[in-house]
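Study this protein:
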Amino acid sequence: MNQLFVKLQVLKATKSKGQGVIEYAGALVIAAVLVAATLAIGPTGITNLFTDIMNSVQSYFTGQLPT
């Protein structure tokens, strides 16, 4: 049990500080890119995108129904 505790302490000590901040910054960058892409498409582009998605989903499920 003592050896396991020592190994856990070594693993905990080797984790670099600030790693969470880097991951958080990466998530913010991805979110910013998604928001920018959405704004670049514009309202009509977004409407067409969701309409196409809903039509595709509806066609798929309609095709799965037994006749």
